[in-house]
Protein 1
Amino acid sequence: MPTLLLFLILFVTGVVTIISSMGSIVEEGTQKFTKRGKVMIFFIGILVFLPLIQNWLQQRAEGIKDDNAKLERRERDSTLQARYDSSLIVMKSKFDTSNIKYVSVVSETLGKYGYKLDSATKSLKKVFGDSAKVKTKEAVDPVLAVGDSRGLKGIDFKGSDDNYYHYEITIVSQDAGSSHFLLKCSAVILDSLTDGFIYLSKHSLIENEATLSIEGARTSYFRVEKKYKFNFFAVWIRGTYKNVDGTKTYFIDQVNFNNKAGNTSKIFFGPTALEVKQIVDQMEKR
Protein backbone atom coordinates (compact mmCIF):
# COMPACT_ATOMS: atom_id res chain seq x y z
CA MET A 1 0.00 0.00 0.00
CA PRO A 2 2.76 2.60 0.79
CA THR A 3 4.38 1.85 -2.59
CA LEU A 4 1.06 2.31 -4.37
CA LEU A 5 0.47 5.67 -2.66
CA LEU A 6 3.97 6.83 -3.57
CA PHE A 7 3.27 5.91 -7.19
CA LEU A 8 -0.02 7.82 -7.11
CA ILE A 9 1.67 10.91 -5.67
CA LEU A 10 4.27 10.84 -8.42
CA PHE A 11 1.61 10.21 -11.07
CA VAL A 12 -0.64 13.08 -9.90
CA THR A 13 2.35 15.41 -9.65
CA GLY A 14 3.24 14.57 -13.24
CA VAL A 15 -0.35 15.17 -14.41
CA VAL A 16 -0.46 18.58 -12.71
CA THR A 17 2.88 19.51 -14.31
CA ILE A 18 1.72 18.48 -17.77
CA ILE A 19 -1.61 20.32 -17.48
CA SER A 20 0.07 23.55 -16.33
CA SER A 21 2.44 23.45 -19.29
CA MET A 22 -0.33 22.97 -21.88
CA GLY A 23 -1.73 26.47 -21.67
CA SER A 24 -3.70 28.94 -19.59
CA ILE A 25 -5.84 27.55 -16.77
CA VAL A 26 -7.83 30.81 -16.42
CA GLU A 27 -10.08 32.31 -19.11
CA GLU A 28 -8.73 35.58 -20.51
CA GLY A 29 -10.35 38.66 -19.04
CA THR A 30 -12.15 36.66 -16.30
CA GLN A 31 -11.38 34.99 -13.02
CA LYS A 32 -12.95 31.73 -14.13
CA PHE A 33 -10.98 28.54 -14.56
CA THR A 34 -10.93 26.83 -17.90
CA LYS A 35 -11.79 23.15 -18.13
CA ARG A 36 -8.07 22.47 -18.08
CA GLY A 37 -7.76 24.60 -14.94
CA LYS A 38 -10.60 22.79 -13.18
CA VAL A 39 -8.97 19.43 -13.93
CA MET A 40 -5.68 20.71 -12.54
CA ILE A 41 -7.35 21.99 -9.35
CA PHE A 42 -8.96 18.55 -8.94
CA PHE A 43 -5.61 16.79 -9.16
CA ILE A 44 -3.99 19.31 -6.83
CA GLY A 45 -6.68 18.47 -4.29
CA ILE A 46 -5.85 14.78 -4.64
CA LEU A 47 -2.17 15.60 -4.22
CA VAL A 48 -2.92 17.38 -0.93
CA PHE A 49 -4.84 14.44 0.54
CA LEU A 50 -2.58 11.56 -0.58
CA PRO A 51 0.23 12.31 1.94
CA LEU A 52 -2.39 12.54 4.71
CA ILE A 53 -3.75 9.14 3.73
CA GLN A 54 -0.22 7.72 3.59
CA ASN A 55 0.53 9.02 7.09
CA TRP A 56 -2.74 7.57 8.46
CA LEU A 57 -2.05 4.16 6.95
CA GLN A 58 1.47 4.14 8.37
CA GLN A 59 0.26 5.01 11.86
CA ARG A 60 -2.46 2.36 11.58
CA ALA A 61 0.08 -0.30 10.53
CA GLU A 62 2.36 0.62 13.43
CA GLY A 63 -0.61 0.49 15.81
CA ILE A 64 -1.61 -2.97 14.57
CA LYS A 65 1.99 -4.16 14.97
CA ASP A 66 2.11 -2.85 18.56
CA ASP A 67 -1.27 -4.43 19.37
CA ASN A 68 -0.11 -7.79 18.00
CA ALA A 69 3.07 -7.60 20.07
CA LYS A 70 1.08 -6.80 23.22
CA LEU A 71 -1.35 -9.64 22.49
CA GLU A 72 1.52 -12.08 22.02
CA ARG A 73 3.07 -10.99 25.32
CA ARG A 74 -0.27 -11.43 27.10
CA GLU A 75 -0.75 -14.88 25.56
CA ARG A 76 2.75 -15.93 26.52
CA ASP A 77 2.33 -14.62 30.08
CA SER A 78 -1.03 -16.39 30.34
CA THR A 79 0.50 -19.61 29.07
CA LEU A 80 3.37 -19.44 31.54
CA GLN A 81 1.02 -18.59 34.39
CA ALA A 82 -1.30 -21.47 33.47
CA ARG A 83 1.58 -23.94 33.32
CA TYR A 84 2.97 -22.97 36.69
CA ASP A 85 -0.48 -22.70 38.26
CA SER A 86 -1.29 -26.23 37.10
CA SER A 87 1.86 -27.51 38.81
CA LEU A 88 1.32 -25.65 42.11
CA ILE A 89 -1.00 -28.32 43.47
CA VAL A 90 1.49 -31.04 42.60
CA MET A 91 4.29 -29.07 44.18
CA LYS A 92 2.23 -28.48 47.30
CA SER A 93 1.12 -32.11 47.69
CA LYS A 94 4.64 -33.48 47.19
CA PHE A 95 6.43 -30.84 49.24
CA ASP A 96 9.14 -32.31 51.45
CA THR A 97 11.29 -29.94 53.52
CA SER A 98 13.96 -32.62 53.86
CA ASN A 99 14.74 -32.42 50.15
CA ILE A 100 16.78 -29.21 50.00
CA LYS A 101 17.40 -29.32 46.24
CA TYR A 102 13.69 -29.79 45.51
CA VAL A 103 12.72 -27.00 47.89
CA SER A 104 15.17 -24.66 46.18
CA VAL A 105 13.73 -25.36 42.74
CA VAL A 106 10.16 -24.97 43.98
CA SER A 107 10.92 -21.70 45.77
CA GLU A 108 12.65 -20.25 42.73
CA THR A 109 9.74 -21.20 40.48
CA LEU A 110 7.07 -19.83 42.81
CA GLY A 111 8.99 -16.63 43.37
CA LYS A 112 8.70 -15.72 39.70
CA TYR A 113 4.93 -15.47 40.13
CA GLY A 114 4.79 -13.76 43.50
CA TYR A 115 4.28 -16.85 45.71
CA LYS A 116 6.21 -18.43 48.55
CA LEU A 117 5.90 -21.88 50.10
CA ASP A 118 5.43 -21.85 53.87
CA SER A 119 7.36 -24.84 55.22
CA ALA A 120 5.56 -24.72 58.55
CA THR A 121 2.03 -24.92 57.20
CA LYS A 122 2.94 -26.44 53.81
CA SER A 123 0.73 -23.85 52.14
CA LEU A 124 1.16 -21.34 49.32
CA LYS A 125 1.12 -17.65 50.17
CA LYS A 126 0.94 -14.63 47.89
CA VAL A 127 3.76 -12.16 48.41
CA PHE A 128 2.92 -8.47 48.10
CA GLY A 129 5.51 -5.73 47.95
CA ASP A 130 6.72 -2.57 46.31
CA SER A 131 7.31 -3.58 42.71
CA ALA A 132 9.72 -0.67 42.33
CA LYS A 133 12.01 -2.26 44.95
CA VAL A 134 11.77 -5.80 43.68
CA LYS A 135 14.78 -6.99 41.74
CA THR A 136 14.24 -9.58 39.05
CA LYS A 137 16.90 -11.67 37.40
CA GLU A 138 16.95 -12.64 33.79
CA ALA A 139 15.09 -15.86 33.09
CA VAL A 140 17.32 -18.80 32.27
CA ASP A 141 14.63 -21.47 32.18
CA PRO A 142 13.55 -22.63 28.73
CA VAL A 143 9.97 -21.96 27.67
CA LEU A 144 8.69 -24.35 25.04
CA ALA A 145 6.38 -22.23 22.90
CA VAL A 146 4.23 -23.02 19.88
CA GLY A 147 5.39 -20.38 17.39
CA ASP A 148 7.17 -17.14 18.29
CA SER A 149 7.41 -13.40 17.63
CA ARG A 150 9.78 -13.80 14.66
CA GLY A 151 6.91 -14.70 12.39
CA LEU A 152 6.87 -18.45 13.00
CA LYS A 153 3.23 -19.48 13.37
CA GLY A 154 2.50 -22.17 15.92
CA ILE A 155 0.21 -23.91 13.46
CA ASP A 156 0.48 -22.77 9.87
CA PHE A 157 -1.98 -23.74 7.12
CA LYS A 158 0.13 -24.38 4.04
CA GLY A 159 -2.60 -25.05 1.49
CA SER A 160 -4.13 -28.16 -0.02
CA ASP A 161 -3.94 -30.63 -2.86
CA ASP A 162 -6.60 -32.89 -4.33
CA ASN A 163 -6.88 -35.05 -1.20
CA TYR A 164 -5.46 -33.26 1.84
CA TYR A 165 -5.13 -29.99 3.76
CA HIS A 166 -1.52 -29.47 4.89
CA TYR A 167 -0.31 -27.94 8.16
CA GLU A 168 3.02 -27.17 9.80
CA ILE A 169 3.36 -27.25 13.61
CA THR A 170 6.39 -25.38 14.98
CA ILE A 171 7.70 -25.42 18.54
CA VAL A 172 10.40 -23.02 19.74
CA SER A 173 12.69 -23.19 22.78
CA GLN A 174 12.58 -19.63 24.09
CA ASP A 175 14.93 -18.00 26.63
CA ALA A 176 17.21 -21.09 26.84
CA GLY A 177 17.90 -24.44 25.24
CA SER A 178 15.79 -27.50 26.01
CA SER A 179 16.06 -31.29 25.74
CA HIS A 180 14.73 -34.67 26.96
CA PHE A 181 11.30 -34.23 25.40
CA LEU A 182 8.49 -36.47 26.62
CA LEU A 183 5.65 -34.88 24.71
CA LYS A 184 2.30 -36.06 23.43
CA CYS A 185 0.51 -34.27 20.61
CA SER A 186 -3.06 -35.09 19.55
CA ALA A 187 -4.99 -33.48 16.71
CA VAL A 188 -8.69 -32.63 16.37
CA ILE A 189 -10.85 -30.52 14.08
CA LEU A 190 -14.02 -28.55 14.77
CA ASP A 191 -16.60 -29.90 12.34
CA SER A 192 -18.44 -27.08 10.52
CA LEU A 193 -21.64 -29.09 10.15
CA THR A 194 -22.12 -30.43 13.68
CA ASP A 195 -20.07 -27.77 15.53
CA GLY A 196 -18.44 -30.61 17.44
CA PHE A 197 -14.82 -31.72 17.71
CA ILE A 198 -13.64 -34.74 15.71
CA TYR A 199 -10.58 -36.64 16.88
CA LEU A 200 -7.98 -37.28 14.18
CA SER A 201 -4.89 -38.97 15.57
CA LYS A 202 -1.73 -38.75 17.64
CA HIS A 203 1.11 -36.79 16.14
CA SER A 204 4.89 -37.05 16.53
CA LEU A 205 6.09 -33.58 17.48
CA ILE A 206 9.78 -34.03 18.35
CA GLU A 207 12.10 -36.93 19.17
CA ASN A 208 12.69 -37.68 22.86
CA GLU A 209 16.47 -37.44 22.47
CA ALA A 210 16.42 -34.19 20.48
CA THR A 211 17.94 -30.95 21.76
CA LEU A 212 16.86 -27.43 20.84
CA SER A 213 19.25 -24.51 21.27
CA ILE A 214 18.02 -21.14 22.54
CA GLU A 215 15.40 -19.88 20.05
CA GLY A 216 15.84 -23.15 18.18
CA ALA A 217 12.76 -24.42 16.37
CA ARG A 218 11.42 -27.77 15.22
CA THR A 219 8.70 -28.08 12.60
CA SER A 220 6.56 -31.16 12.01
CA TYR A 221 3.92 -31.76 9.38
CA PHE A 222 0.31 -32.87 9.53
CA ARG A 223 -2.34 -33.43 6.90
CA VAL A 224 -6.13 -33.66 7.14
CA GLU A 225 -8.31 -35.45 4.64
CA LYS A 226 -10.50 -33.23 2.49
CA LYS A 227 -13.57 -35.27 3.31
CA TYR A 228 -13.89 -33.17 6.48
CA LYS A 229 -15.60 -29.77 6.50
CA PHE A 230 -13.88 -27.51 9.02
CA ASN A 231 -12.03 -24.27 9.67
CA PHE A 232 -10.49 -24.95 13.07
CA PHE A 233 -7.62 -27.44 13.36
CA ALA A 234 -6.28 -27.89 16.91
CA VAL A 235 -3.56 -29.84 18.71
CA TRP A 236 -3.28 -30.67 22.40
CA ILE A 237 0.40 -30.65 23.41
CA ARG A 238 1.28 -31.95 26.85
CA GLY A 239 4.19 -33.52 28.68
CA THR A 240 7.58 -32.60 30.04
CA TYR A 241 10.95 -31.35 28.83
CA LYS A 242 14.22 -30.39 30.49
CA ASN A 243 16.94 -27.80 30.23
CA VAL A 244 19.98 -28.73 28.16
CA ASP A 245 21.93 -30.35 31.00
CA GLY A 246 18.84 -32.25 32.16
CA THR A 247 18.84 -30.91 35.73
CA LYS A 248 15.40 -29.26 35.65
CA THR A 249 12.06 -30.52 34.41
CA TYR A 250 9.32 -28.32 32.96
CA PHE A 251 5.71 -28.93 31.99
CA ILE A 252 3.64 -27.98 28.97
CA ASP A 253 -0.12 -28.50 28.71
CA GLN A 254 -1.90 -26.36 26.14
CA VAL A 255 -4.29 -26.49 23.20
CA ASN A 256 -3.32 -24.52 20.11
CA PHE A 257 -5.48 -24.01 17.04
CA ASN A 258 -5.37 -22.68 13.51
CA ASN A 259 -8.32 -20.98 11.82
CA LYS A 260 -7.96 -22.05 8.20
CA ALA A 261 -10.20 -19.22 7.01
CA GLY A 262 -7.66 -16.55 7.99
CA ASN A 263 -4.65 -18.77 8.74
CA THR A 264 -4.39 -17.43 12.30
CA SER A 265 -2.79 -19.42 15.11
CA LYS A 266 -3.78 -18.91 18.76
CA ILE A 267 -4.28 -20.76 22.05
CA PHE A 268 -7.57 -22.21 23.28
CA PHE A 269 -8.33 -21.50 26.96
CA GLY A 270 -11.17 -22.40 29.31
CA PRO A 271 -14.11 -24.63 28.33
CA THR A 272 -12.99 -25.03 24.72
CA ALA A 273 -9.57 -26.36 25.71
CA LEU A 274 -11.21 -28.66 28.27
CA GLU A 275 -13.57 -30.04 25.62
CA VAL A 276 -10.65 -30.82 23.30
CA LYS A 277 -8.83 -32.64 26.10
CA GLN A 278 -11.92 -34.68 26.98
CA ILE A 279 -12.42 -35.75 23.36
CA VAL A 280 -8.77 -36.79 23.07
CA ASP A 281 -8.84 -38.68 26.39
CA GLN A 282 -11.95 -40.59 25.36
CA MET A 283 -10.56 -41.60 21.97
CA GLU A 284 -7.05 -42.53 23.08
CA LYS A 285 -8.26 -44.72 25.94
CA ARG A 286 -10.07 -47.01 23.51
Protein 2
Amino acid sequence: MTTQAIFVRQIDRLKQSFGERAYSKEKIELIWQEVKNLKDNDLTLLVDNLIADSRFAPTRKDFREGISNLRLERYYEEKKKISRESERMSDEIISGTFKFIGKIMQGQYSAEQVKAFADSVKSKQRACRFCDDSGYVFTKEKNGPYENIVFKCKCPIGKQNEDVFPSWNADFAEKYELMN
Protein backbone atom coordinates (compact mmCIF):
# COMPACT_ATOMS: atom_id res chain seq x y z
CA MET A 1 0.00 0.00 0.00
CA THR A 2 1.29 3.40 -0.96
CA THR A 3 1.82 5.71 1.97
CA GLN A 4 0.45 9.24 1.78
CA ALA A 5 3.95 10.73 2.24
CA ILE A 6 5.40 8.81 -0.72
CA PHE A 7 2.39 9.73 -2.86
CA VAL A 8 2.80 13.44 -2.05
CA ARG A 9 6.52 13.22 -2.89
CA GLN A 10 5.77 11.60 -6.25
CA ILE A 11 3.10 14.21 -7.08
CA ASP A 12 5.67 16.92 -6.24
CA ARG A 13 8.11 15.29 -8.67
CA LEU A 14 5.42 15.28 -11.37
CA LYS A 15 4.60 18.94 -10.69
CA GLN A 16 8.30 19.82 -10.95
CA SER A 17 8.56 18.02 -14.29
CA PHE A 18 5.26 19.05 -15.89
CA GLY A 19 4.24 22.19 -14.08
CA GLU A 20 2.16 23.07 -11.06
CA ARG A 21 -1.00 23.64 -13.15
CA ALA A 22 -0.89 20.15 -14.69
CA TYR A 23 -2.20 18.55 -11.51
CA SER A 24 -5.32 20.00 -9.94
CA LYS A 25 -6.58 18.77 -6.59
CA GLU A 26 -9.30 16.75 -8.34
CA LYS A 27 -6.80 15.13 -10.73
CA ILE A 28 -4.52 14.25 -7.82
CA GLU A 29 -7.43 12.56 -6.01
CA LEU A 30 -8.26 10.52 -9.12
CA ILE A 31 -4.62 9.46 -9.48
CA TRP A 32 -4.61 8.47 -5.80
CA GLN A 33 -7.53 6.12 -6.48
CA GLU A 34 -5.42 4.42 -9.17
CA VAL A 35 -2.17 4.07 -7.22
CA LYS A 36 -3.18 3.68 -3.57
CA ASN A 37 -2.80 -0.12 -3.68
CA LEU A 38 0.72 -0.05 -5.13
CA LYS A 39 3.78 -0.63 -3.01
CA ASP A 40 5.82 2.51 -2.36
CA ASN A 41 8.75 1.37 -4.52
CA ASP A 42 6.37 0.45 -7.38
CA LEU A 43 4.85 3.94 -7.31
CA THR A 44 8.32 5.49 -7.38
CA LEU A 45 9.30 3.30 -10.33
CA LEU A 46 6.04 4.14 -12.11
CA VAL A 47 6.62 7.89 -11.68
CA ASP A 48 10.25 7.49 -12.81
CA ASN A 49 9.00 5.84 -16.00
CA LEU A 50 6.25 8.41 -16.57
CA ILE A 51 8.66 11.33 -16.14
CA ALA A 52 11.22 9.73 -18.45
CA ASP A 53 8.75 8.66 -21.16
CA SER A 54 6.10 11.41 -21.23
CA ARG A 55 6.28 14.62 -23.24
CA PHE A 56 3.16 15.94 -21.53
CA ALA A 57 1.76 15.58 -18.04
CA PRO A 58 0.72 11.93 -17.52
CA THR A 59 -3.01 11.36 -17.26
CA ARG A 60 -4.95 8.85 -15.19
CA LYS A 61 -4.97 6.59 -18.25
CA ASP A 62 -1.16 6.76 -18.39
CA PHE A 63 -1.05 5.69 -14.74
CA ARG A 64 -3.39 2.75 -15.45
CA GLU A 65 -1.27 1.61 -18.38
CA GLY A 66 1.89 1.97 -16.33
CA ILE A 67 0.39 -0.09 -13.51
CA SER A 68 -0.63 -2.80 -16.00
CA ASN A 69 2.90 -2.88 -17.38
CA LEU A 70 4.35 -3.15 -13.87
CA ARG A 71 2.04 -6.07 -13.09
CA LEU A 72 2.98 -7.82 -16.32
CA GLU A 73 6.68 -7.34 -15.55
CA ARG A 74 6.14 -8.74 -12.05
CA TYR A 75 4.30 -11.73 -13.52
CA TYR A 76 7.18 -12.52 -15.89
CA GLU A 77 9.77 -12.04 -13.11
CA GLU A 78 7.82 -14.43 -10.89
CA LYS A 79 7.44 -16.88 -13.75
CA LYS A 80 11.22 -16.85 -14.37
CA LYS A 81 11.89 -17.31 -10.66
CA ILE A 82 9.48 -20.24 -10.47
CA SER A 83 11.00 -21.73 -13.61
CA ARG A 84 14.52 -21.57 -12.13
CA GLU A 85 13.28 -23.07 -8.86
CA SER A 86 11.45 -25.77 -10.78
CA GLU A 87 14.58 -26.66 -12.77
CA ARG A 88 16.63 -26.80 -9.56
CA MET A 89 14.00 -28.94 -7.89
CA SER A 90 13.84 -31.23 -10.93
CA ASP A 91 17.61 -31.73 -10.80
CA GLU A 92 17.42 -32.47 -7.08
CA ILE A 93 14.51 -34.85 -7.59
CA ILE A 94 16.29 -36.74 -10.39
CA SER A 95 19.49 -37.02 -8.36
CA GLY A 96 17.60 -38.09 -5.25
CA THR A 97 15.48 -40.53 -7.24
CA PHE A 98 18.50 -42.34 -8.64
CA LYS A 99 20.10 -42.54 -5.20
CA PHE A 100 16.85 -43.79 -3.74
CA ILE A 101 16.37 -46.41 -6.48
CA GLY A 102 19.87 -47.68 -5.80
CA LYS A 103 19.09 -48.05 -2.11
CA ILE A 104 15.75 -49.75 -2.89
CA MET A 105 17.58 -52.28 -5.03
CA GLN A 106 19.92 -52.91 -2.11
CA GLY A 107 16.88 -53.48 0.16
CA GLN A 108 17.56 -50.51 2.44
CA TYR A 109 13.97 -49.12 2.41
CA SER A 110 10.58 -50.53 3.41
CA ALA A 111 7.48 -50.48 1.17
CA GLU A 112 6.02 -47.62 3.23
CA GLN A 113 9.15 -45.52 2.71
CA VAL A 114 9.05 -46.18 -1.04
CA LYS A 115 5.39 -45.10 -1.22
CA ALA A 116 6.06 -41.94 0.80
CA PHE A 117 8.93 -41.03 -1.51
CA ALA A 118 6.84 -41.61 -4.65
CA ASP A 119 4.05 -39.42 -3.24
CA SER A 120 6.48 -36.58 -2.50
CA VAL A 121 7.86 -36.71 -6.06
CA LYS A 122 4.33 -36.56 -7.49
CA SER A 123 3.43 -33.55 -5.33
CA LYS A 124 6.35 -31.47 -6.70
CA GLN A 125 5.38 -31.79 -10.35
CA ARG A 126 3.77 -28.92 -12.24
CA ALA A 127 0.04 -29.36 -12.59
CA CYS A 128 -0.74 -27.48 -15.81
CA ARG A 129 1.23 -27.33 -19.04
CA PHE A 130 -0.86 -24.45 -20.46
CA CYS A 131 -0.60 -21.85 -17.70
CA ASP A 132 2.33 -22.98 -15.50
CA ASP A 133 -0.08 -22.91 -12.56
CA SER A 134 -0.84 -19.17 -12.95
CA GLY A 135 -4.46 -19.72 -14.00
CA TYR A 136 -3.94 -17.63 -17.16
CA VAL A 137 -2.97 -18.73 -20.67
CA PHE A 138 -0.96 -16.06 -22.51
CA THR A 139 -1.15 -16.38 -26.29
CA LYS A 140 -0.50 -14.55 -29.52
CA GLU A 141 -2.31 -14.84 -32.82
CA LYS A 142 -0.67 -17.37 -35.20
CA ASN A 143 -1.50 -15.69 -38.51
CA GLY A 144 -2.12 -12.06 -37.92
CA PRO A 145 -0.86 -8.93 -36.28
CA TYR A 146 0.30 -10.97 -33.26
CA GLU A 147 -2.02 -9.43 -30.76
CA ASN A 148 -1.51 -10.77 -27.25
CA ILE A 149 -4.62 -12.44 -25.87
CA VAL A 150 -5.16 -13.72 -22.32
CA PHE A 151 -7.44 -16.67 -21.60
CA LYS A 152 -8.56 -18.20 -18.33
CA CYS A 153 -7.11 -21.70 -18.02
CA LYS A 154 -9.43 -24.65 -17.43
CA CYS A 155 -7.14 -26.13 -14.77
CA PRO A 156 -8.20 -26.01 -11.08
CA ILE A 157 -6.24 -22.78 -10.50
CA GLY A 158 -7.82 -21.10 -13.54
CA LYS A 159 -11.30 -22.14 -12.45
CA GLN A 160 -10.76 -20.27 -9.17
CA ASN A 161 -10.18 -17.00 -11.05
CA GLU A 162 -13.34 -14.95 -11.41
CA ASP A 163 -12.06 -12.83 -14.29
CA VAL A 164 -14.03 -12.15 -17.46
CA PHE A 165 -11.41 -13.69 -19.75
CA PRO A 166 -12.70 -16.42 -22.09
CA SER A 167 -11.73 -19.96 -21.11
CA TRP A 168 -8.93 -21.61 -23.09
CA ASN A 169 -10.05 -24.54 -25.27
CA ALA A 170 -8.98 -26.54 -28.33
CA ASP A 171 -10.81 -24.19 -30.72
CA PHE A 172 -8.56 -21.32 -29.63
CA ALA A 173 -5.45 -23.52 -30.01
CA GLU A 174 -5.97 -23.48 -33.79
CA LYS A 175 -5.86 -19.66 -33.97
CA TYR A 176 -3.46 -18.77 -31.12
CA GLU A 177 -0.10 -20.07 -29.98
CA LEU A 178 1.09 -20.22 -26.38
CA MET A 179 3.59 -17.64 -25.20
CA ASN A 180 4.62 -19.64 -22.09
